[in-house]
Design goal:
InterPro entries: HemC (IPR000860), Porphobilin_deaminase_cofac_BS (IPR022419), Porphobilin_deaminase_N (IPR022417), Porphobilinogen_deaminase_C (IPR022418), Porphobilinogen_deaminase_C_sf (IPR036803). By secondary structure, this protein is of the alpha/beta class. It has helices spanning 19-35, 49-52, 69-76, 135-144, 157-165, 176-181, 215-221, 227-242, 288-301, 304-316, and strands at 10-16, 40-46, 82-86, 98-103, 111-114, 129-131, 149-151, 171-175, 190-191, 206-211, 251-258, 261-269, 276-283. The protein is globular and about 60 Å long. It binds the ligand NCc1[nH]cc(CCC(=O)O)c1CC(=O)O. The ligand NCc1[nH]cc(CCC(=O)O)c1CC(=O)O binds at residues 86, 88-89, 174-175, 177-178, 203-204.
């Protein structure tokens, strides 16, 4: 792309190659192609380090950045113009030289209960084996359902469902958005309410990343931005950032619009679920990031710092 005044002849989207990532890239491709009929919109698929290391929990391999690094290199080298991500997987502090220039309207943000035997979390008997590798989901399960056995579950969506179907688990918890995007909505037996389990910051939204030195690309992808979702996820991400959020921290953050106000709820917990602090805040949507910081302070006042210090200590010992 060469100019901000004319539409580029070619727009290249960098994407991971998992089925979910590709669905998301194709979705954005379709929307850009409809907006810019003169442009040829292409997808550059690539495998990231995060996709290759499948046998360790995300928290142990260095976290979210591993899934986006290769895509950023492609943009730096001019092989791609933008990258499409599940926003949940985008680091809270953007890597130097890159910006989030659009946030798409959110798909169902909640966690989904998936099982071939049971209809809902509350139906699981004591000793039932439930699969998740998210520290956030684990802390909530241990706090509210201490009678369940939690077993690690990694891999892409298809792999996780295959492990469930092979009988390795009685039930698994996945983001509803991924299942819906892949046409697997019928696998969802029930949704976890925000009261049961607050979603991860950004869950269900797509983030469009572009190089900071290419404002013309940012202007182009602005057509994909949903302002309401953008306010919500800015508040959620500010909360997470203020608490040092990464997938090493069991933390939930979820904002919605309520009577014209932004309503942000959040929690921080220890992975064993023994300590958990939660709070909520309401305010003007344009104060999104300030609300996130305010909520972080409220959680700190309730003892979030002690929880975070304990987490730092635990991971240093790994
Ligand atoms: N952590 C992996 C991941 N990243 C995005 C989604 C689903 C789509 C979304 O949340 O937008 C998932 C799967 C899951 O958590 O079950």
């Amino acid at each position: 792309m060469d100019s901000s005044t004319s539409t580029p002849s070619r727009i290249v989207i960098a994407s991971r190659e998992s089925r979910l990532a590709m669905w998301q890239a194709v979705h954005v491709q379709g929307r850009l192609a409809a907006q810019f009929p003169q442009s040829q919109v292409e997808i550059l698929g690539m495998t990231t380090q995060g996709d290759q290391i499948l046998d360790k929990p995300l928290a142990a391999i260095g976290g979210k950045g591993l899934f986006i690094k290769e895509l950023e290199v492609a943009m730096q080298e001019g092989r791609a113009d933008l990258a499409v991500h599940s926003l949940k997987d985008v680091p809270m502090v953007m890597p130097e030289g890159f910006v989030l220039s659009a946030i798409s309207a959110r798909e169902t943000p909640f966690d989904a209960f998936v099982s071939n035997k049971y209809a809902a979390l509350d139906d699981l008997p004591a000793g039932a084996v439930i699969g998740t590798s998210s520290l956030r989901r684990e802390s909530v399960l241990r706090a509210r359902y201490p009678q369940l056995v939690i077993k690690s579950l990694r891999g892409n969506l298809d792999t996780r469902l295959r492990k469930l179907d092979a009988g390795e688990y009685d039930a698994i918890i996945l983001a509803a958005a991924g299942l819906i995007r892949l046409g697997l909505k019928e696998r969802i037996r029930s949704l976890l309410t925000p009261e049961q389990s607050l979603p991860a910051p950004g869950q269900g939204a797509l983030g469009i990343e572009t190089p900071a030195d290419r404002p013309e690309t940012a202007a182009l992808v602005a057509v994909l931005n949903d302002p309401e979702t953008a306010h919500c996820v800015r508040a959620e991400r500010a909360l997470s950032r203020a608490l040092g959020g990464s997938c090493q921290v069991p933390l939930g953050g979820y904002a919605i619009f309520d009577n014209g106000q932004l309503w942000l709820r959040g929690f921080v917990a220890t992975a064993d679920g023994k300590q958990m602090v939660s709070a909520e805040v309401r305010g003007a949507p344009q104060d999104d990031e300030a609300l996130g910081l305010q909520l972080a302070d409220m959680l700190r006042a309730q003892g979030a710092d002690a929880i975070l210090a304990q987490l730092a200590h635990a991971s240093a010992g790994q």
